[in-house]
């Protein structure tokens, strides 16, 4: 998977964490998901009106939905503030389909040890 990241994303540790977590979801890297996600994570897939609760359910859902091969992830912005973060860009699938996305993250706390507590995913 090709990864295009804007310059300036390396000045805040949480920005890199959000990028790594986004990549881990697209590539189904369960070890990274388990490291960064809270056990009780909630993932809202707003386009599909779907709510996935818990780390195990998140991993299972990703395995079930693995019918698209991601060719490229282009990130436009990553914004962090306190225990919140957002990432947006475009996902290009191997078949050429482009999906514009924005994920809004909430962490369990503001410290470096904070884990991903909630994600709201917007997909077009």
Secondary structure topology:
Elements: E1 2-4, H1 13-27, H2 30-36, E2 37-45, E3 50-53, H3 55-64, E4 70-81, E5 84-93, E6 98-107, E7 116-123
Parallel strand pairs: 1-4, 2-7
Antiparallel strand pairs: 2-3, 4-5, 5-6, 6-7
Could you characterize the architecture of this molecule?
With 124 residues, the chain is of the alpha/beta class. 26% of the residues lie in helices and 45% in strands. It has a 7-stranded mixed sheet with strand order 1-4-5-6-7-2-3. Strand 2 (37-45) and strand 3 (50-53) form a beta hairpin. Helix 1 (13-27) runs antiparallel to helix 2.
Protein traits:
124 residues; alpha/beta; seven-stranded mixed sheet
Short recap of the structure:
This protein is an alpha/beta fold.
Number of strands: 7
Most strands sheet: 7 strands, mixed
Proportion in β-strands = over 45%
The average pLDDT value, as a whole number, equals: 93
- What is the CA-atom radius of gyration, in angstroms? 14 Å
């Amino acid at each position: 998977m090709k990864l295009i990241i804007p310059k300036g994303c390396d000045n805040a540790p949480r920005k890199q964490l959000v990028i790594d977590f986004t990549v881990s979801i697209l590539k189904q890297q369960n070890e990274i998901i388990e490291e960064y996600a809270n056990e009780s994570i909630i993932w809202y897939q707003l386009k599909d009106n779907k709510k996935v609760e818990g780390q195990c359910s998140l991993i299972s859902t990703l395995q079930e939905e693995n019918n698209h091969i991601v060719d490229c992830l282009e990130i436009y912005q990553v914004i962090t503030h306190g225990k919140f973060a957002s990432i947006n860009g475009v996902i290009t699938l191997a078949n050429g389909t482009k999906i514009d996305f924005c994920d809004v993250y909430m962490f369990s706390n503001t410290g470096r040890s904070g884990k991903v507590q909630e994600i709201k995913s917007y997909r077009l």
